[in-house]
Specification:
By secondary structure, the protein is of the alpha/beta class. It has 16 helices and 21 strands. The model has no long low-confidence stretch (mean pLDDT about 95). The protein has three domains: about 90 residues, Urease, subunit C, domain 1; about 230 residues, TIM Barrel; about 100 residues, Diaminopimelate Epimerase, Chain A, domain 1 (Roll), CATH 3.10.310. The longest helix has 14 residues. Strands 7-8-9-10-11 form a five-stranded mixed beta sheet. Helix 9 packs across helix 10, helix 10 packs parallel to helix 11 and helix 12 crosses helix 14.
Length: about 425
């Protein structure tokens, strides 16, 4: 493929020849016989976006689940109405996602029995860290250790009990392609060999267009009520002995402090990661930088959940939530992601939130953590091997590109996925310019 007369982000207008990789970049390249020619005049070409933390199977399942988040549920009656109008899946369950206590309060087995007594129900908290089941559901999965029906995701073993359906990833892939996403890193913990093989097969047969990288088996979710420094240090050291980098899920101050202490004791590698880093006390910034660990964070939660944070979080802790500029200014390595499906699907909204720090209701949220538009976009340009090193439009780089309508200034001022007019994955064009 030959892409002609496209802007790069540096403002230069170039022709780009693309196969599996970019093979030529020049002011005026001559088309070859049989070569697809794309007129990109008036458009900007950037490296294809890589979303550095997603959950593909959960995203596919969420499309078939009932959304019971605060946008749809404001009372227990709303929850009852949505669940009772839902259609059970092939395993006989009603599956719901996105729940937060601001919707209809604290949910446990007793409450769900009042709402839905006769059909197995499992509701996932929007954090992804917790499931809430009614009595019928608990009896099916035999989670006797949690009589209140609140089961941590790390202990949710029911797929083996109720059967794990392999869902199509085609719809998720199509939407990612429309946003210019050419690669993803799946951060689902404890993916077994079968699940990884299924992702590989979906990519091979074209159902999942994006390149896919998996963090498992080195992904671990930390929980405040079970933090054990010695055990975590031992696990990290064991992973490193096997040549496996680690990725630690940290969303609280305590989790981050213990994670950094464990990495300091076990020794960190350049490939180790800390996911989310939702809370960063100022005295942890230097430790993060000195550890050399990569932080993968989600500024989209500022817009998606910021208004609720302003209600729920102590005033003293608010300035430590979802930092970005302070991480970069302290020398911490950073890449961005959406946390799909626990965050929104559109990485451009994450970029916009990183630049504006505006909540859904239009309120400023830690504005000192704003970054420039160029910084926000570039933090989606990395590869799984080097997430914090932006790819460039240059010979030898992957043939994965995003074509955006307008000049570089237009692109950086809008940060809007609606302006994506073409996505190139491994030299193949998808989108309006076909």
């Amino acid at each position: 493929m030959l892409i002609q007369q496209a802007y790069r982000l540096d403002g230069r207008i170039v022709d780009i020849r693309v196969e599996e990789r970019i093979t030529e970049v020049g002011d005026s390249l001559t088309p070859r016989d049989g070569e697809q020619v794309v007129d990109a005049r008036g458009h900007t070409v950037i490296p294809g976006l890589h979303d550095h933390h997603v959950h593909l199977w959960a995203a596919a399942a969420a499309l078939e689940s009932v959304d019971v988040g605060p946008l749809h549920v404001r009372s227990i009656d709303d929850l009852r109405r949505l669940l009772r109008s839902a259609i059970a899946d092939s395993d006989g369950w009603i599956r719901a996602v996105g729940y937060h206590e601001s919707a209809a309060g604290y949910l446990d087995r007793a409450t769900l029995d009042q709402v839905m007594p006769n059909v197995p129900v499992r509701i996932q908290h929007r954090s992804g860290a917790l499931w809430m089941l009614n009595s019928v559901g608990l009896s099916v999965v035999n989670q006797s250790g949690h009589p209140d029906g609140r089961v941590p995701s790390s202990e949710a073993s029911w797929p083996a009990v109720i059967g794990k359906r392999e869902r199509s990833l085609a719809h998720i892939s199509d939407r990612l392609t429309r946003y210019g996403v050419t690669g993803v890193t799946d951060a689902t913990p404890d993916l077994d060999a079968g699940a990884v093989a299924a992702l590989t097969d979906a990519h091979r047969r074209g159902e999942l267009r994006q390149r896919v990288h998996c963090l498992s088996p080195g992904k671990r979710i930390l929980h405040d009520d079970s933090l054990d420094l010695d055990s975590l240090t031992e696990w990290i050291a064991s992973c490193h002995d096997r040549g496996v980098p680690v990725a630690l899920h940290c969303v609280t101050r305590s989790q981050l402090v213990v994670a950094l202490a464990a990495l300091r004791s076990a020794g960190s590698s350049g490939s180790d990661r800390i996911e989310h880093v939702a809370v960063v006390p100022p005295d942890c910034l230097r430790d993060l930088a000195e550890s050399g660990v990569l932080v993968v964070t989600q500024p989209n939660f500022v817009s998606e959940r910021g208004d609720q944070y302003l209600v729920d979080v102590d005033v003293e802790e608010l300035p430590t939530l979802w930092p970005l500029a302070s991480l970069l200014n302290s020398g911490v390595r950073v890449a961005l992601s959406t946390d799909l499906p626990f965050g929104g699907l559109d990485p451009w909204k994450a970029m916009y939130a990183a630049v504006t720090r505006i909540t859904g209701a239009g309120r400023a949220f830690n504005p000192r953590e704003r970054v420039s538009p160029h910084q926000a976009v570039a933090m989606f340009f990395g590869t799984p091997e080097r997430p914090d090193v932006p790819r460039r439009i240059a010979v030898g780089q992957q043939g994965d590109l995003c074509i955006v309508s307008g000049s570089p200034d237009d692109v950086l001022s809008n940060l809007d996925s609606c302006t994506v007019v073409g996505t190139v994955i491994k030299g193949e064009l998808h989108g309006e310019l076909q």
